[in-house]
Amino acid sequence: MRERLLGQVRARLRRCTIDGDPTAVLAPEALIEVAALLETVSSPAEDLEIAHTAGLLYWVRCLSSNDQRDFSTALDLLAPVYQVRPGMVPDQVQAIFDEHGPGTFETAPLETAPLWTARAVGLLEDAMRAGDPAALDTAIDLFQQAVEVTPVDHPDRVVRLGNLSAALQFRFERRGQADDLNALIDLRHQTVRAAPIDHPDRPMYLVNLSTALRLRFERTGQPDDLDNALTAGRDAVATISTDHPHRAWCLSTLGGALCLQGERTGQLDDLDAAIDVLRQAVRVAPARDPDRPAYLANLSATLQTRFERTGQTDDLNAISDLLRQALELTPADHPNRPAYLATLSNTLCIRYGRTGQPDDLDNALTVGREAVTVTPTDHPHRAWCLSTLGAALRVRFGRTGQPDDLNAISDLLRQALELTPAGHPNRPAYLFDLGATLRIRFERTGQIDDLNTAIDVLQQAVESPPTDHSNRPAYLVNLSVALQTRFERTGRLEDLNAAIKAGQNAVATTPTDHPERAQCLSVLGIALRTRFELTGQIDDLNTAIRTSQDSEETTSTTSTTSAAETTPPP
Length: 570
Hints:
Layout: H1 2-17, H2 23-26, H3 28-38, H4 48-65, H5 68-84, H6 91-100, H7 113-130, H8 133-148, H9 157-175, H10 178-194, H11 202-220, H12 223-239, H13 247-265, H14 268-284, H15 292-310, H16 313-328, H17 337-355, H18 358-374, H19 382-400, H20 403-418, H21 427-445, H22 448-463, H23 472-490, H24 493-508, H25 517-535, H26 538-561
Helix pairs in contact: 1-3, 1-4, 3-4, 4-5, 7-8, 7-9, 8-9, 9-10, 10-11, 11-12, 11-13, 12-13, 13-14, 13-15, 14-15, 15-16, 16-17, 17-18, 17-19, 18-19, 19-20, 20-21, 21-22, 21-23, 22-23, 23-24, 23-25, 24-25, 25-26
């Protein structure tokens, strides 16, 4: 009986350690067999061969399962073996016993942290390569265990916090769970606090904190998160040496936060400051820096934001040039390549709207399709790529009027929304685009279901945070137009009143120098005049007249300050 059970347990160990089959030791049958083996002796210490074999099985199990019970059982069984022949136990177990002596451990000692970390790194690499969600979750649990056994003042704690935060960020990017983002920010605060002021990697920890805070701001719109992201970014730039290889990264991160501030406040000075910092990042980045394409793309994104405010053609041309440079430096299988392609597609669409050059539209569709084709179905940028291709098709629809394009746009945006969880910063834009598309299709087909759905999704876009986003006026004015359209179809006064309220909110939230303000005023004026004609309320007529006059003055002012005042609808 003893020999047969020893052979069975050893066979399982060989299948796991030699053949790479962890189920051999994780299966319930493995526990049944090792329990039967241990029952053949009154105490494992009386038979070191049994203690060694059983202890190894539990040890190999704990390496795969991260189960504290397996860990404790393995050390209990291997302790008598260590006392007689220390070299027979695994190296990590010997290190633990050398430091603490053999005995029972209710919690894992510090010496196990490298073990958990090494196992976690391998699992994280598997998850990043193959998209294995179970491997990712186990890796995070192991990184967490390594942190938990490491004292607050231990010199390796900073690195272990960094490992855990990197894994959490990867999972957040894949799943978009707010709990992961909150935990990530807490960890990065801990990392900054744990690093001495003169720690060589402190600027990087500050940059990581700034990035996480920006991500949460983009989801929730909480001003404190953006303010803290700016503070961390500025501290990183201030503390990193001018010749540090990561200085460009620090500058680019700060520039991205400044761009968000410009979007939030609508102040051109904030955008100009962001562009200056991002240009510094590109300038100081070595030519062979693998992150150089990202710096070029970040600069192009901020120029895009400024172009949307000013309509300056020079910014638009610079965006195209920067993105082409980024693509030339980016390998075909790089995970950022789809984003660069999608952004270039969007830029070419906008330039087509300015110049009418057919090549720009054709190229926009080509790179937009490439972006969708090369993006894996579980890639965090896939929804954005789908939306961008939809935008290029919408531009072509405006040129050709082909109904098939409208149907394709609707399908693409619905796919994008299926991939985008509630609270994601891009979800309002996808809702807006779908609503605008369905409203146009209603105008073509007269299908009231399209109009009703358009109003529903536009209302969702308006109600999505943050409520002070720079795109909110566009959402409101399009909702107002859709509600006016339904009023014309049904005669429901509730729709007209809601249209006026949305138009008033659009005007109230649009800066006086914004190129879209004239459109907001015009839409509101039409709704007010319609209600006057229905109810005879003189206040509506007076307000409509003032609104129309303001619209004409706004149009006159913007036409003298910009070569083109209105960007194409997103």
